Amino acid sequence: MSESHLHLHFLSLLLLCYVSPSSFSSLNIDYSSYVACRPYQTQVLTEFMNEFDSSHCNLSDPYNRVWCDNSTGAVTMLRLRACLSGNLKPNSSLFRLHHLRYLDLYQNNFISATLPSEFDNLNRLEVLYLSNNSFVGQVPSSFNNLSLLSYLDLSQNDLTGSFPLLRNLSKLSFLDLNNNHFSGTLNPNITSLFELYNLRYLDLSYNNFSSSLPSEFGNLNKLEILALQSSDFFGEVPPTISNLTSLTELYLDDNQLTGSFPLVQNLTMLSVIEIADNHFSGTIPSSLLTMPSLLVLKLRGNNLTGSIKFPNSSTPSRLEYLYLGKNPFEGKIIEPISKLINLKLLDLSLLNTSYPIDLNLFSSLESLLHLDLSGNSISPASLDSKSDIPINLEILWLQGCGIKEFPNILKILEKLEYIDISGNIIKGKVPEWLWKLPRLNTVFLTNNSFNGLEGPVDVLVNSSVKNLLLGQNHFEGTIPLLPLSINVFSASGNRFTGSIPLSICNYRSLTQLKIGYNNLTGTIPQCLSNFTFVNLRKNNLEGSIPDAFHISSSLKTLDVGHNLLTGKLPRSLQNCSSQEFLVVDHNRIKDKFPFWLKSLSNLEVLILSSNKLYGSISLPGQGPLGFPELRIFEISDNKFTGSLPPRYFENWKASSLMMNEDGGLYMVYTKATSGRLSYFNIEAIDLKYKGLSMEQGRVLTSYATIDLSGNRIEGQIPESIGLLKALIALNLSNNAFTGHIPLSLSNLGKLESLDLSSNQLSGTIPNGIGSLSFLEYINVSHNQLKGEIPQGTQITGQPKSSFEGNAGLCGLPLQETCFGTIAPPTQQPKEEEEGEEEEVLNWKSVAIGYGTGVLLGLAIAHLIATYKPEWLVKIIGPNKRRSL
Ligand SMILES: *[C@@H]1O[C@H](CO)[C@@H](O)[C@H](O)[C@H]1NC(C)=O
Ligand SMILES: *[C@@H]1O[C@H](CO)[C@@H](O)[C@H](O)[C@H]1NC(C)=O
Ligand SMILES: *[C@@H]1O[C@H](CO)[C@@H](O)[C@H](O)[C@H]1NC(C)=O
Ligand SMILES: *[C@@H]1O[C@H](CO)[C@@H](O)[C@H](O)[C@H]1NC(C)=O
Ligand SMILES: *[C@@H]1O[C@H](CO)[C@@H](O)[C@H](O)[C@H]1NC(C)=O
Ligand SMILES: *[C@@H]1O[C@H](CO)[C@@H](O)[C@H](O)[C@H]1NC(C)=O
Ligand SMILES: *[C@@H]1O[C@H](CO)[C@@H](O)[C@H](O)[C@H]1NC(C)=O
Ligand SMILES: *[C@@H]1O[C@H](CO)[C@@H](O)[C@H](O)[C@H]1NC(C)=O
Ligand SMILES: *[C@@H]1O[C@H](CO)[C@@H](O)[C@H](O)[C@H]1NC(C)=O
Ligand SMILES: *[C@@H]1O[C@H](CO)[C@@H](O)[C@H](O)[C@H]1NC(C)=O
């Protein structure tokens, strides 16, 4: 049983305990037949429902129910899930249902409502379930009056403030605050948490508590489940945790916890211990592996060292899921593992072993289904088919193990579903027998030196493989005939030649076709329009882009850049309402700017550079360009003309993106794939901006770039450019821009690369640009600028050439000093310009959205829980170098 199952099991037990059906009479009927409900109660309930759009509430389905006490006729239990839409107001009739003991309003659409303090009118409540409702603000102190409450779930909202006041809730046994924005210290002198002695379930995960773990956690000794992951906890785990003798599940992952292994060895009920991605150091206590109930032990990504000595115990360990990866064990840990004979999952990746691992060591692990040895060196002999390894393996990761020969050991793994041998140095042909493994579903051969497939041309056709990833190898010849059930075919970065076979149009389940960076010729088949992810970049394809995108298209990504394509942009792209990436750069497309793409409300990336596009990029009389989600806009080296209206950059996504300083999204992402890159759904883009440090895996979801260079755009640079706070690169060079450099550029606090060279800009360089602290590269050469170059470390470190060819710039890094020259001192802008700047700064930017992050977090939590590949999580990945 996986931990997520355990979790659910516990939940249902709790519900059974607290919502004992015998104390409520149940009516699953429509309004008119509430026999046990008094008319007045029914009326109040009707009023409540009428405050909302409740047309989706079906009181006959098992989720939505009203129960009335059969002696008093009062509504005592109300469950309305995912069907109300509107505002929950303080004067809502809900708060007149005083007899409610059970209230479940899970996942309704209460638009940005705060939690009304009137909830305390419902002071008979025992169960209150308000999860996933977008409630904002603080939990009102009146919640403290719900003194009969035993079950409180406020999870999946946007609640803020410190730990809520719940002091009088002495009966509380279940408290779930996960996925909110609660913050601050859990100071035992102030917070009421440590007085909730009856808590059996406590979930504070995915919040922003920035706190140590007070020793008072030891007071909560009825706790069975304690979940504190991803909430910024730091410091050591207090020894008093050993007091929590009822604990069955402990989750501390992804915090900043330090010190030695938490004192949990005596907690004999524990079945799950997850402390991954912290800074725990020292050795693993030897008694841990023989804890009587322990099934899941997740220690990945810490600083644990040393070896485990197994106590001489007659009872074998029950451990089923063991994650030890990314710890500096140096291999000492491996031998004792052969005694953990109930293991189903074993993660030993990235152990920094000093000697090659011998797969025969795992021969005793007969239940093992999932083995991860990525990033270790493996004894070549033990990869031979004569080795003794668990034959029930379903998932095997051997990524980056320095393997030279195809691992023949796979031949005996009849149950293998998923194999990853990417990032090795295997040469030659992929053996024919691989495709005969009866359950094979996903094959990663990426990043090796394979040059072909052994066997006849149709060797793949009858294979069960659905996801085939061959990218970054030396495959030659024409694209092979694919398995009939293929879903993902990714073969970018090879030496495939010939045309794209029309046979790909026959695969009904093919959704991802990634064959960029090959040497394919011919035209693009029409059926391309039926796929979701298409990458044909850097081939020699000719003809035009098929104009067959139909209204039900699921296209998300289309990258046909760097080919020989001609004709116009297909107008049927307007039908692709899911599209996020449209990349057609470096072709010969002759067309006007595609204003008509505005209907693609999800478009985030539009790259049209280096084509033969022409005409104005703004429509007469129009203000903002108006692509609501656009973040990456590159149209350089075309023949665009015209000028940009002042409000051109208003309402762009780049003004409201939530920037994550530490690349938080990326961290979550690497954890989801256990620190490895998954090649699924990674959209890579070549971003070429001088000075831009594209460190590996920088996530494209969190920043924005604009490149209009090499056109004939004239007029002023719109002040509204200063609204795009997430901009990291701006290139307007080689145009005909006139006027001053906008003062608002100083607002672009994330800017790393700025190129305004070769225009006709006049005036001075705004002083604020000198204080842009991330600016790595600036070029204003070949304009008509005057005055002093703003001084600041980012600027004086630039080469002289960045300022050359102007009318009269002085100061570092140029040799001309401003003192004693005829150049005027830095001019303060004229009055009206100041006014303009203020106006720009006051333009409202859209509220920051946390939503995506939370959802991603959830999806990933699920992923971690099951440790099964899950391709639905959309990740926009690293740059081109990485994808090659
Ligand atoms: C309401 O739910 C019941 C039970 O699930 C179902 O039979 C019925 O069709 C639903 N009614 C509507 C209008 O959806
Ligand atoms: C109320 O329901 C309970 C349980 O179903 C039953 O024992 C009791 O007799 C009922 N009371 C009335 C007044 O109907
Ligand atoms: C609740 O208050 C709002 C104003 O905030 C008012 O418009 C509405 O009529 C009131 N509803 C009831 C049921 O009193
Ligand atoms: C929360 O609600 C949204 C819809 O509003 C839904 O898509 C999502 O799956 C829900 N999340 C959870 C964890 O229930
Ligand atoms: C709590 O109060 C005690 C006594 O007043 C004090 O010694 C202690 O430092 C306080 N703890 C915190 C975390 O503020
Ligand atoms: C441990 O639990 C006991 C009750 O079992 C309680 O009396 C004691 O205060 C707790 N100790 C600590 C250090 O929390
Ligand atoms: C665990 O229990 C043993 C024996 O009861 C005791 O000696 C030891 O101190 C306990 N360890 C912890 C960390 O509480
Ligand atoms: C890891 O632990 C060792 C001691 O075991 C310590 O010297 C080292 O600084 C730790 N490294 C990190 C990154 O915490
Ligand atoms: C691509 O194919 C053409 C002939 O079709 C050949 O001239 C060229 O060298 C090939 N390029 C590469 C990179 O293999
Ligand atoms: C797209 O798929 C549908 C059925 O799934 C098929 O009828 C249609 O011909 C396909 N379009 C192209 C251009 O292949």
Automatic annotation (TrEMBL):
Statement: the UniProt record of this protein carries the keyword Acyltransferase: no
Residues in the signal sequence: 1-24
Membrane topology according to the record: Single-pass type I membrane protein
Record Gene3D superfamilies: Ribonuclease Inhibitor
SMART domains in UniProt: LRR_SD22, LRR_TYP
Cell compartment(s), UniProt: Cell membrane
Domain of life of the source: Eukaryota
Family from the record: Belongs to the RLP family.
Full protein name: non-specific serine/threonine protein kinase
Annotated source species: Brassica campestris (Field mustard)
Lineage: Eukaryota, Viridiplantae, Streptophyta, Embryophyta, Tracheophyta
